[in-house]
Structures are given as structure tokens and as C-alpha cells.
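Each record in this resource describes a single protein on a pair of labelled lines. With that in mind, the following record should read easily:

===
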Amino acid sequence: MNIDEAEQRFRAEVAGLSPAAATAPDRELAPRLTGVNCLELFTAQVLSRQADLAARRLGASGQGFYSIGSSGHEGNVALAAASRVTDPVLPHYRSGALFVERVRRAGGVDPVRDLLLGVVAAAADPISGGRHKVFGSAAAHIIPQTSTVASQLPRAVGLAFAIDRAARVGIDCPWPPDAVVLCGFGDASANHSTATGAINTAVHTADLGVPMPVLFVCEDNGIGISVPTPPEWIEQAYGHRPGLRYFSADGCDLLDAVTTASTAVAWVRAHRQPAFLRLRTVRLFGHAGSDVESAYRDNAAIAADLARDPVTATARLLVTAGIRTPREILDHYDRLAGQVAATADDVCGEPKLGSAARVIAPLAPARPDSVRADVLRSGPPVPGPDSAGAPPANPVTLAQALNETLAELLARDTDVLVFGEDIGRKGGVYGVTKGLRRRFGARRVFDTLLDEQSILGTALGAGLAGFVPIPEIQYLAYVHNALDQLRGEAATLSFFSAGRYRNPMVVRIAGYAYQRGFGGHFHNDNSVAALRDIPGIVVASPSRPDDAAAVLRTCVSAARVDGRVCVLLEPIALYHTRDLYEPGDGQWATARTDTHVPIGRPRVYGAGTDLTIVAFANSVPMSLRVARRLEQRGTTTRVLDLRWLSPLPLDDLIYHAEATGRVLVADETRRSGGVAESVCAALVDARFTGSLARVTSADSFVPLGPAAASVLLSEADIEAAAYRLLTGAGPGR
């Protein structure tokens, strides 16, 4: 059945209703739900439906762009009725009626205009600025989501955790301490590992006695694009789970939906524990604008859904309750339809984003002077007799430098949280967080589940709530299990909210290879390309202790000041390294400084004029040893430690390349997709005319034991490549 037929059916059914005796508009039809309330909710449902229809017309005329409709899901307006405007919402992508009513209640703007500005990708769109059609509103506390498949659930769990934690720690949070987090998703998404992991984390966390005020709302329309969901699957999967209070309502019956949603929200608010609301809905007019539903559903199934149309059902309720006559309902419907059509015509003339600079502006905000000032702020002494280990003047290892810096940050700034698997009592696999929990308490330094999605989701929620979270991912290989929490959630939030929302965080990841006699692939991983490919995030990789301390400070301040998403890749093999040239020389342990290292500025060793070796992480000490041997043969070399893998220090790179006229990139990652590709491309783009070569690890996973040496970059490889470059003998590996 097409849209025109559905409209005709609505009109015919309403016109055929028998008017009831008029009743007082303020009469309660359900507890705390009067006729006036029902009419307001019906208005939101109709506006959402008409916005869907307008979006389809705009798309058909080439004036609108990809948009997923909410038709059939208008029962989610009950969530707006059941909650407070100050309860944060992470909506399902079919939450049109919820959005319209919540924004109306927040006041001051036209929610339909906001929606349609997004449909036509207008720069005036008040949430995404013309970058995507999303449901989002800072005033209405709707955190923008795109057409996500459950990826927002870990963030919702993190936010529920952080709202209570903010009140206990004394952090200024955008939401009141008794707020309830509402998180919507579909029945198909409920099967996604991200959803099951997030719900498991919520239940597990609550079981530990930690407040977890989140209401998971599954809008169950019985079909995931074209794949049916068994009718009772959601109830079977979630209806009897210990620790998860379960509610179910008919989303096509406004009274049932509002009454049940109100009960669910009130229960979560009172108990501060997670609950699950199954809202039974229908899906009308297919999955999205380009979807041809008749290709995979029979006519009887399509007609059965239309027979349960929630907009028609609410109109029927208003007529049978004597709130409005059929004629009044149809006149009201037509007025709203005309209003939406006029708005659709108007937004078509709004200008679009016209330059790459305007498009990417929210991705990487940068106020370097403010970041520097935040880095250099002084703080109180670190508590505890063993608080800071060795004084700053004494040489420390990279692991010790990170530990002491984390302690200083925790002591100085109450907004800092440190968490991850094994980082509390154990102090981390490599001792980097040793003693922090004892000194700063379990509210600020705590262990998490063994679930990288939930670790990052906790950071995503905590960042929204006013914290600067520093989560730890135990090994680089493990972050790939949860990469979408960085790519699809963290990196996109500022982009899709035009900077109105941000999720500051510094993700510490132990990575790279060269752990002799340990690990294999999952504990020796050098795949950084997936991180460097994410627009807007900062990827730092210090190699020596003083740099590790300074870079960590810079990342924390960039997160706090600019809302940046930062990843700190820490070379495991250098955590406890003290020596550089010979055993016992102690030349890699350094005095930890409190200096500032600006994002995108490298460290340079030496001032040689014959060769520049570009390196990072483990390849820095390797290259320094090679440079020393070259020096003994009469070749002067400088080693450029990138320190920042994204953004790359391009200006310094070009300067030092030109200074020697020869550049060798020593890349411990891989030949395909490694860092060296970008370094070489940057030099080519800058029209560098000197000699250029790279030497890398092989395109291989890291094997266990001595076999690792056959695929990883070695000092011998670097030295041989340098010799070839200096003598013109040809390229290296």
C-alpha cells in the first residue's frame, strides 16, 4: 500500500467514526493523562508523520536526501510524556514523535522545521549544521544519533553511570542527579553484540551496587529491514533476566504506552537500576525512502501493520472519548499537514554547506594557547607517602612516568577518571596504574568488565557528563573489537551536533610488538591504520619517559579544553626500558618533566646534515642506535621522532627533510597501510625533491617466539636501508 492510499484510509476511518458525547478536555483518560494531554501527543504524532511524508516528497523531487522515517513508531511519543525534559535521550532512529514532543516541551523552536532542515542538509539545521539528518537537540537533551545499530547503548550505560558518579565526586554535570537515561533501539538491533554487551554491563554494574539509571526502550516492529523478528523473541530474550526490570506496552495504544512508560521511568528513577521497556510498534512505508517493502513482505502483512497505525488509533481514542469530533480531528490533521508542507517548501531555499572547511570545522577544534595554559596549571601535592615515586629530577621509565603523571592529574583535577580492565587493585598488566586506586579511591580509579565496547562506552558517557575519562584498553589488538565506539560514536558526536555535544577522552592503549618471548598476535599488535583513519581524533605515540608524561598532559588538556578524542599508543616493549646503547647505560630513562608538548610537534635528535630518519615508538631508540653507528662511519644523521601519528607534524617533517635532502622512514607497523605511507605522501605533496625511502615491518600478523624477528622491522633493516639511500644502491624492504 502506498502513502496516498494510507492517507485515504486514515481519512475514511476517522470520518466513519461515530462521535461520542462531548466531555471536558481536562478529564483524565488515564492516570495523569487528560484529554488535552492526549491531543498534544496526537499533534506530535501527526507532525512526525507529516514530516516523514514531506521527507519522501523532498527526496522524490531531488531536494531532500537520505532519511529513515518514523511512521508506525509514533507511539514513542509516550516517552516524552513519561519523562522530564532534563532526562537525557539517546534516541532510536525512528523517534520522530518523541523528538517533536520533547522539543515542544523544551520550548522556543519549531521541531518540524528542525527536522526538515536536516532532510535538505541545510546549513541552518540547528543540530548537525547540514551534515546529516539526525534527531538531536541540546535544549531538549536529545543526544544526536544517526541510523545506528545499537552503537549508542554503551554510551547510554556510561552516561547513566556518570550522572551518579558526577554527583558523588562533585562534578558539574548537565543533568540533575535523579535523571534517567532513555536509550531507544530496534528489535533487530537488540541482537547486536553491542546491545547485548551494554545491557549485560548495566545489569552487572547494578549488581555491584553501583547506580545505573537507564531505561532501554526496544521499539519492536517485528522486522529488521527485511528479516522478521519472531513475535516473542524480545520477551524471551529480555523478559525474565535477573537484575533487569521488564515492562511491555502496545505502542499503537497511546494510553497503554504512556501509562507503562511512565511506570517504567518512575521505577528507574526511584530504584536507580536498569529496566527494559518493550514498545510493540509497526513499521509503515518500508525501512527507508529507497526501500520497496513489497519485494520481501506480502500484502497481508503490510495491511496488518497499517490496521494498527498508531496515528489512526490515537484519533479514534480522541473521538470515542468525546474530546474531538471526527470532523475536528480531520480539520486539525489537515491544518498540521498544511503547516508541514509549507515548512518543507520554505526549507528548500536554505543554503547548504559550501566548503570543506565548513564541513569539517567541528571535527578538530583547536585552542592551543588554552590547552597549553591548562597543561601548565599547578595542582596540590599527590596524596600518599609513595605518592609520586622518584622526584622529577630522577630518571624514570616510561611506565613510571605515566604512573606519576596520572597521579598528578588525579590530584589536580577532580574531573579525571581512570578505569579499565585490571587497572585497580592489580595496577594494570604492566604496573602503569599501580597504587592509583589506593591513593584516589574506587570512585575515580576502578576496574571494568572485560568488554572493550563497555569500557569505551563508559568513557563516552562520562565525557558527556562533565568528566575527562582516561580509559585503558589492555592491548592494541583488543581495541579492534570495539573500534566503532571510537569511529561511529566518539569521533562523530561533535560532527553531527556541530560542536554542541562533545565527548572528551584520552584512551590509553598498550601496543606494538618487540615483547621478546611473549604474546603472539594478540599481545604484539602494530595495526594503527584503523585509528589513524578516523577523522578528527588525536593519535599520540611517545617513545621516551619525559615525552610520555608531557604528551599525556597535553592530551588530557586537549580533551578538557577542546573536547578532543585522543588515543595514546604506549609501546609495551619500552615501558620498563632504561638503557639505550649498552646494557646498564641508563640513557633511555629520563627525568620526567612538566613541560608542554603541542599536538603535532615532534622531537628531533641531532643536527646531522646527511640523513633524516623519521621514526616513532620502538623505532626511535632503534634509529638512534643506527644513527650512532652511521656517525662512526662519518655520516651525520638526525632522528625525527614523530610523537604524533595523527595529525602528523607536517611542517617539521618537511623542514628536517629539506635540511638533509635524504629521508628514511623507519616504520615498525606494516608496509601496506602503515604510517610510512602517509609520511612519504606528505613529502611528495610538499614537492620534496630529495631522496626518499622507507623500511617497514612485513605485511603480517606478529607470530609467537623467534619467528617474530623475521617479520618485524629490525635495526639491521634500518641500517641497511640507510646505507642504500646514502649510496644510491636502491630501495629497502
The radius of gyration is 29 Å. Residues 35-60 form the longest helix (26 residues). DSSP finds 25 helices and 25 strands in the chain.
